[in-house]
């Protein structure tokens, strides 16, 4: 079976970038299910992963409609280079990839990305694409809970014990170089902005900083140095980690093609 | 006085008996999941449903239960409508009281739209009525609930989050 054929229009790529960010983060965070550091966080991570999965399903359904592809085909049968999420979303929780991983990194990434999703969904409320605007309206309500929850944990652990502070700072240093990809504009963004489909991601940066910086300051975390973006997950060039993640996510459909229940 | 109920009234009466699978104290109508019931030109019916949360695993089950309940009202069509997004503001005062009697603290006030989101630190206990409780977990057994514990009777209880 060859690679799935996608029309790859600017619109489809714009939608898939957001859908895949939600899908891949959902898959990552569900790795905590049954392994959470405390029972309450086990529940929280699973619940938030479920919200992200629901958002991804709606977006994938929408993105695939033009090509006659459904959400399952897009999630389960695309190849690595056809996923368009920024690299940040696919990183394992621990540097060495061991599971379930470093909860500090989970908290930091959830906070930074929840702030980003909040701004993105807010701007998408005005999309000329009514289905995308409806998905944004629903998702924003959920993303606000995610942002509040992860911000609370950022402060608790950042401004916590000496050990938790060091781990949170290290997690922030690890995540920071990947953030540039969330605020880079390109031809896909330009087209989306011109057609009023959605904002150019570059336009989100100033508001994002205004949202996250006070929380990081309260968490006594120092802002790492900004570096030029070196990541191209949005163009299908991923880290080694995505393939491993997909081998979990897609295992059943690869082993039993077309299987349903 | 008109004693003859229309087919639509009958269908609506049936819909009011379909309980939510995860909160069986309330019907789908009381929860605001059923948005509309239309009688179509061909004599069939269209039920418009809205999902509560994007990832709610009960969405498909709810559709099946509506289909089963209304099997005598063919042809039956079911539409999912995402906008306006479901909100706990659609749960009326009577339904909130039913929730409380069932042991789930109803959403307090209206859902925040613009203010920074804050989960209340203290929610009245649905069992003993004490106003003092503590939040144990922002997320509970389902996406729509948080977990609290009453500081008076010490019983844990679920709180239906305003959204």
UniProtKB/TrEMBL annotation, chain A:
BP GO annotations: phenylacetate catabolic process
Highest taxon, organism lineage: Bacteria
InterPro entries: Aromatic_CoA_ox/epox (IPR052703), Ferritin-like (IPR012347), Ferritin-like_SF (IPR009078), PaaA_PaaC (IPR007814), PaaC (IPR011882)
Record-linked Pfam families: PaaA_PaaC
GO cellular component, one term: cytosol
Identification of the protein by name: Phenylacetate-CoA oxygenase subunit PaaC
Organism encoding this protein: Inhella proteolytica
UniProtKB/TrEMBL annotation, chain B:
Span of domain PaaD zinc beta ribbon: 114-161
Transmembrane annotation, as ranges: none
InterPro entries, sorted: Fe-S_Maturation_MIP18 (IPR052339), FSCA_dom_sf (IPR034904), MIP18-like (IPR002744), PaaD-like (IPR011883), Zn_ribbon_PaaD (IPR056572)
Domain of life of the native organism: Bacteria
Domain MIP18 family-like: from-to ranges: 9-72
Stated name of the protein: Phenylacetate-CoA oxygenase subunit PaaJ
Organism, as annotated: Inhella proteolytica
Lineage, top ranks: Bacteria, Pseudomonadati, Pseudomonadota, Betaproteobacteria, Burkholderiales
């Amino acid at each position: 079976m060859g690679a799935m054929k996608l029309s790859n229009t600017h619109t489809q790529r714009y939608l898939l970038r957001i859908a895949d960010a939600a899908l891949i983060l959902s898959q990552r965070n569900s790795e905590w299910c049954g392994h959470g550091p405390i029972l309450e966080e086990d529940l929280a991570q699973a619940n938030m992963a479920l919200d992200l999965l629901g958002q991804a399903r709606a977006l994938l359904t929408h993105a695939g409609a033009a090509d006659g592809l459904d959400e399952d085909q897009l999630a389960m049968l695309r190849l690595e280079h056809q996923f368009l999420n920024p690299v940040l979303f696919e990183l394992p929780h621990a540097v060495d990839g061991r599971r379930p991983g470093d909860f500090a990194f989970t908290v930091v990434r959830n906070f930074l990305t929840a702030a980003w999703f909040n701004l993105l969904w807010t701007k998408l409320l005005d999309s000329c694409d009514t289905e995308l605007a409806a998905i944004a309206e629903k998702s924003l309500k959920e993303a606000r809970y995610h942002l509040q929850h992860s911000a609370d944990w950022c402060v608790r652990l950042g401004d916590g014990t000496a050990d938790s502070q060091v781990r949170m700072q290290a997690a922030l240093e690890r995540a920071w170089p990947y953030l540039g990809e969330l605020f880079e504009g390109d031809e896909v963004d330009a087209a989306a902005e011109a057609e009023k489909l959605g904002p150019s991601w570059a336009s989100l940066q100033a508001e994002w900083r205004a949202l996250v910086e006070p929380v990081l300051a309260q968490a006594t975390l120092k802002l790492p140095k900004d570096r030029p973006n070196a990541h191209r997950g949005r163009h299908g060039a991923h880290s080694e980690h995505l393939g491993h993640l997909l081998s979990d996510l897609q295992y059943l459909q690869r082993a039993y093609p077309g299987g349903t229940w | 006085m008109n004693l003859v109920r229309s087919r639509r009234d009958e269908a609506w009466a049936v819909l009011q008996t379909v309980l939510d699978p995860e909160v069986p104290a309330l019907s789908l109508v009381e929860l605001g999941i059923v948005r509309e019931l239309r009688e179509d030109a061909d004599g069939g019916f269209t039920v418009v449903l809205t999902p509560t949360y994007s990832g709610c695993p009960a969405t498909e089950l709810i559709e099946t239960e509506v289909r089963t309940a209304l099997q005598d009202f063919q042809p039956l069509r079911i539409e999912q409508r995402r906008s306006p997004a479901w909100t706990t503001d659609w749960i009326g005062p009577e339904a909130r009281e039913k929730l409380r009697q069932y042991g789930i603290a109803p959403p307090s006030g209206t859902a925040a739209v613009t203010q920074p989101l804050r989960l209340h630190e203290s929610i009245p206990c649905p069992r003993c009525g004490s106003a003092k409780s503590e939040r144990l977990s922002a997320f509970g057994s389902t996406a729509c609930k948080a977990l609290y514990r009453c500081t008076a009777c010490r019983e844990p209880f679920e709180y239906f989050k305003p959204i």
